[in-house]
Amino acid sequence: MSTGDQGQYGQFLLSRLGEFYQERLLCDYVLKVNEEKFEVHKVVLAGCSDYFRALFTHGMRESRSNMLQLDGLDTMAMRQLINFAYSGKLHLNLDNIENVLSVASFLQMTSAMELCSSFLKSNITFDNAEKLSALAETHGLVKVNQYKKKYILDNFYEFSQTDQFLKLDAKTLADYLADDSLKTTTEARLLKCALRWYDHDPEARKNVAHSVFEKIRFTLDGWPTIEYAQEREPFKSNINGCMEILNYASNYMQNASRKHLYQCNRTRVRYTRKTLVQIGGEHHIMYSYGDELAGTLVGYTHNHYFHLDNQRWFPLGVVGTFDSRSHCVFMEVNDFGILIGGYLYSWVTLPQAQKFPTNEVKLFVPGGFALWDMPYMLEDRAHHAAVRIGDFLYVAGGMGHDAFLSSVERFNMREEVWEYVTSLPSSLIDHAAAECQNKMYVSGGIEGNSDVGTDKVQVYDPETNRWSTVNKMLTGRLGHTMTKVGDRLIVCGGRLDDQSPRCLITVEAYSPSTNQWTYISPLRNDTSYMAAVVLEEKLLILGGVNSVQDHLQSIQQYDPELDKWTLYGSLPTPLGSFGCCALTVKMTENGQEDTDSVMDAYNVWPSGSEPGSDEEDHEVQDAIAVLNLQNGL
Asked: By the 8 A CB rule, do 12 and 18 touch?
């Protein structure tokens, strides 16, 4: 048995029904709208209008008659909609849209209303936006108002140059300025727009000035925009308490190492999505040594963020190149990045580059791409692990200058003080840690003088300052990752021991509620010493080293709903042992940091360090040049 399908049959049937309507064939109902009569077919009306379907099928009195009188509706609009019922075509313009939409809404013609909605969205301009959005709101077309707001937010500067902008009430303008999706080059540009609005009628707006200007995120531009505002009303005379806004921003700027504690609507980056930020890492470089070409592992000096729309990596402005480091922890705290410890590299000793652990702690500020020193740890350490629990950062184990560490220290972010807490039961490196249920879970790693990755999972409880254990992993491992995804801890890859380069592909998940480990879908590639980040509810495994000791460039993505791994993208270069976390970074269309006349006037960017520039890795290149010179090359 086979089934035939004439692909154009629906269009043929609609065309035939249209002919019946035009020729008044087999019509079984009459609509009288004001003084005009329309001979129609019940089945066609019921098919495109919920109003008529209910009328004809629910036993109403009108269904037993062959005519319906409809007064008060626009006759031309009714003719348009009846033609639409028989053709699927609706001819709209700005002169008839209001009447057509009114009748379509009354008759509950959903398809016609959707066409009206699309027409309104495609014809919105700054001049008619308020009128068309009010019309849409009257008839419940929510998408039109959403589109209107997006249209204004996407083109805010152009909108700010119109007369309609100057007529906005304070609440509407404040709502626009508070929106994370508002597109602007800088906050300085938004400030100038708001000042133009204020100067249009300062007497009427002086009592609402604070509610508008507090939505400008002065801290993202920093001192130039603050100083620019200080010279202008309503700030200069502190009208409506507007100097409080600048004082708040100034205090925030002066407490550089505490910015992460004061994240709020006035300070957060104006963007709607988090993205990946990479710091440091370890990679291979090649150089000439005598008559031979040789290679060595060195720290990576370039730092990047990932542009989600362009699917490209861009340098972190003036933080794009700085000290070479690897085996560090880079973690998110209140949408700031905190960089903890790791190896720093010395370039003067090629071909064997020296590295030494550090106790440095730095705060990365996504709004402005800046690094600020925070109080340093009590000990130098690399190959360590760290988590955040409440107002504390906990750092466990790692490698010191000449020994494995068992010590654990915590940083009180409010008091800005480091202190020791109970040490690990044994010294540990290349382990992984994650926060779960306000406790620090530490898995795997190398204990003491062993070369084999342990399968132990140890748990630190800050309330009791004690360590305990839970069920062991199914596989002992080191150089792996452990990440909290939903209500589970997911452990990926790593190595069995430190003597063999063989890397693992296995992935296992731990349920704290059952205290059980289970294998889930394996990685696409065998990987160790990689980074793990949760982005938009997916787990990303970035870079790492494989079993033949090649550094990887790929980014693997795990969907916990599907238990499936896919390829997400690539790093800017093959890389391992680097820091990475998800932060909100402002992304422009071309991936470069924007500026404008206000910022330029205050010389905010030092010469030669404009954000977005991708400088060469000068220290590495200079060291290689010196080595080549010493070898007569």
From this structure: no
Q: Which residues of 373-393 are buried (b: 16+ CB within 10 A; e: fewer)?
A: ebebbebbbbbbbbbbbeebb
Question: Hey, what amino acid is at 325?
Answer: R
Mean pLDDT for each 10-residue chunk of the chain (633 residues)? Answer: 65 85 88 91 92 85 79 93 92 95 95 96 93 93 94 94 95 96 91 96 96 95 91 96 96 88 89 94 76 74 89 80 87 96 77 84 89 95 97 97 95 96 97 98 93 96 98 98 97 94 96 97 97 97 96 97 96 96 83 50 35 36 38 35
How many Cβ atoms are within 10 Å of 235's Cβ, its own excluded?
Answer: 22
Instruction: Domain 274-625: give its CATH code.
Output: 2.120.10.80
**DSSP state for residue 437 in the 8-state scheme:** T
At residue 44, φ and ψ (nearest 5 deg) are -70, -45
Give CA separation, 561 vs 273, 418, 486, 537, in Å: 21, 39, 10, 10
Residues 6+ apart with CB under 8 A from 546: 503, 525, 526, 527, 528, 552
User: Which residue stretches of 124-206 are H helix?
Assistant: 129-138, 142-154, 156-160, 163-166, 170-178, 187-200, 202-205
Helices 110-123 and 142-154: crossing angle in degrees, nearest 10, is: 20
* Phi, psi dihedrals of residue 102, rounded to the nearest 5°: -65, -45
* Fold entry, domain 155-254: 1.25.40
Q: How far apart are CA 3 and CA 49, in angstroms?
A: 31
> How far is 589 from 183, CA to CA, in rounded Å?
10
Q: Compute how many other C-beta atoms are within 10 angstroms of the C-beta atom of residue 461.
A: 15
Q: How far apart are the first and last CA of the chain?
A: 81
Token readout for 240 is 């409506």
Closest CA to 282 of 383, 370, 365, 374: 383
The domain limits of the chain are: 9-143, 155-254, 274-625
pTM: 0.83
HSE-up (13 A, CA, CB side) for residue 545: 23
CATH class of 9-143: alpha beta
108 φψ region: left (φ > 0), alpha (ψ -120 to 50), beta (else): left
